[in-house]
Amino acid sequence: MNIQRILSKQLQIDEENISNVISLLDEGSTVAFISRYRKEKTGNLSDIDVRSIEKNLNKLRNIEKRQEEIISALESSNNLTDELKKQILSTNSLTLLEDIYNPFKKKRKTRADKARELGLEPLFKYLLNEVKSSQEAINFAKDFLNEDIDSSKEAIEKSLDILAEDISNNIKARNIVRRDGMIRARLKVNQKDDSKNVYQTYYDFNKKIKDLKSYQILAINRGEKEGALTVKVEFSDDYNKRLISDLYDSSNSYQRELIDKSVNDAYKRLILPSITTELRNYLTDMAENESIKVFSSNLKPYLLQKPIKGKTVMGLDPGFRTGCKVAVVDPNGKYLDKAVIYPVKPHKKEKESMDILTELIKKYNVKLIALGNATASRETEIFVNKLISDKNLDIAYAIVNEAGASVYSASALGEEEFPDLDVTIRGAISMARRLQDPMAELVKIEPKHIGVGQYQHDLNEKKLDDELSKVVEDTVNEVGVTINNASYKLLSYVSGLTPKLARRIEEEFKEGNLIYREDLKNIKGLGDKTYQLAAGFLRFPDSPEFLDNTAVHPESYKIAKKLKDYSLERIDVGELSQKLEVGELTLKDIIEELRKPGRDPREDNPEILTKSEIMSIDDLKIDDEMMGKVRNITDFGAFVDIGVGIDGLVHISNISDKFIKNPNEVLTNSDIVKVRVIEIDKDRQRIGLSMRDIN
């Protein structure tokens, strides 16, 4: 298999660039390193392109491995022919490979096997090739009667089991049903036992397989698993059986009758159950992949939210009976102080709570409050607004999505960071830090708990974790990591670093042993290759070497230092690259970095949406217009936080005046958008929004 050629055709990328990427990956280079520091070799491919090559390369190599396994198994069983080997090696589909191998697999005894054991194969061949009438068949079958076969009719029927199995193993026959499944087949869903009407949308649901959306498939799967729905795939049975029957020649009407009978048996008993399972698995896999894609597209911009630098932040974790947990962190995220207040019912200690917060705010010069959005958030927000007004405080507040905060608080990492603090205080610290540096804090939480995406809890856990970890890795390396305030969890996502090495780096920095980038080489277990992969993504702001706090790779320091003799605004890149013997793309990156050293790419993203008024769903009116923040994007629309404690849904049909196939064509997670209220359902606590026809 020519993998480079196949990938080039699949991804529409030059074959030479594909080959270079494969070589770099095989050498142990990471996607982040390749896309950032090997642009000349890749033709300036993005991290997304390199990641696609890596993913598809693994798929093709898995197919190659399976080809080898099947060939070896067929050789051992003396079933391998030159023609069969050629067929196997020319197949780039795991499904078709298994179809080829299926007749030779060791499996439990079938009806066809039993027919062969009864010596009926000669009868089967006679019926298929020579018989002209039913009477001839009956006469010929008499020779096969024994203690297990009482009549000619029984002998004929049992021999046809061999033909039925051959039909079921026929790749062309199976492909006929597969094609029907993807073109004409329908998924029929009915209510079974759904007393709470959770799946009401899918009662009497009837839709072509090819028109199903990923969220519909996952919802139906969940409903079926819970026993609320019955699901059936309806194929074009008569049409399929006719096409399969036409694959087999007959010389007379009796032979045609036997073939049709065997086709009917093979179709109903063997092919249909197998292809139905295969199709349902394919749909689930496709839906999972699409949902993971949706999750990924939400996760990256969520991680890339603009950090708030240079401000002391107070985190508030609201609660009724147990009170509101308070934590203050300095501009670098260092924990300073804590408190527990009871500003809302049932305690309602409003004055006492105000005094405690005012004292903390003034003591530490707090400039921003991060208020969690879960239980008692609305009531606590009213209190915060009153606090700011009554005490005349120069402070703003922002609502923070608490998703995953409790997971972090109770995690081993949370306990390790703050062993002497209650889990609830850890949650308040996490909320404060999410405003200061969203990425640094959110990487401490398993991506599936972050609260973006669709049906994440129904997805294959390993597949989801693998894909989302790659998103986190790409995002962290795109931004870079400042060594001064980085946790080992954040460091573990840096190109080339393992969790073990990340922990050692954190410890060595705390002990004052890391000043220069080059000091990384002194860390036990961090060799030259790892240094090459990681160094460019780590920032050392206190290093006497200016370049250590930039994205310029140490291997390019000599080039970068030569540029001090040139005006960065008037450089002829083409001419200078030849003079300095460096690639144009690499030189451009060095120049750009020197123009804005240590620039954080997140700085260009929208500002955090701070609150100035309190609203609830009761305050809303149809046609109200307001600003909101995109919280989550799905296949069917976007959920927007408009500050009323309930995210409103902008259905895909209401996102743009122009037709769009996917919300991601227009929106990105964390975008600040203007919306109009078009539906208010107080009973179900649902809000419908539109981005169309807004003044």
Summarize this structure as a short list of keywords or feature phrases.
5-stranded mixed beta barrel; 5-stranded mixed sheet; 695 residues; alpha/beta; Nucleotidyltransferase, domain 5; Tex N-terminal region-like; single chain; 15 strands; Arc Repressor Mutant, subunit A
How would you concisely characterize the structure shown here?
This protein has 695 residues and is of the alpha/beta class.
Total DSSP helices: 28
Q: Rounded to an integer, what's the Rg over CA atoms? A: 33 Å
Major sheet: size, sense and barrel closure? Answer: 5 strands, mixed
What percentage of residues falls in helices of 4 or more residues?
40-55%
Distance between the termini: 58 Å
Can you tell me the CATH architecture of the domain at 111-295?
Orthogonal Bundle
CATH hierarchy, class of the domain at 111-295: Mainly Alpha
Strand content: 5-15%
Assembly state here?
single chain
Q: Show unreliable segments.
A: none
Total number of β-strand segments? 15
Global morphology = globular
Mean pLDDT: 91
- The strand line-up of the biggest sheet is 6-5-4-7-8
Write out the CATH superfamily name of the domain at 111-295: Tex N-terminal region-like
SS content category: alpha/beta
**What's the CATH topology label of the domain at 111-295?**
Tex N-terminal region-like
Structure description:
The chain is of the alpha/beta class and 695 residues long. Among the domains are: 3-104, RuvA domain 2-like (Arc Repressor Mutant, subunit A); 111-295, Tex N-terminal region-like (Orthogonal Bundle); 312-436, Nucleotidyltransferase, domain 5, CATH 3.30.420.140; 617-690, Beta Barrel (OB fold (Dihydrolipoamide Acetyltransferase, E2P)). Helices cover 48% and strands 12% of the residues. The chain is built from 28 helices and 15 strands. It has a five-stranded mixed sheet, sandwiched between helices. Strand 5 (324-329) and strand 6 form a beta hairpin. Helix 10 crosses helix 11 (152-169), helix 12 (171-183) packs across helix 15 and helix 14 (237-245) crosses helix 15. The chain is globular and about 105 Å long. The two termini are 58 Å apart. The model has no long low-confidence stretch (mean pLDDT 91).
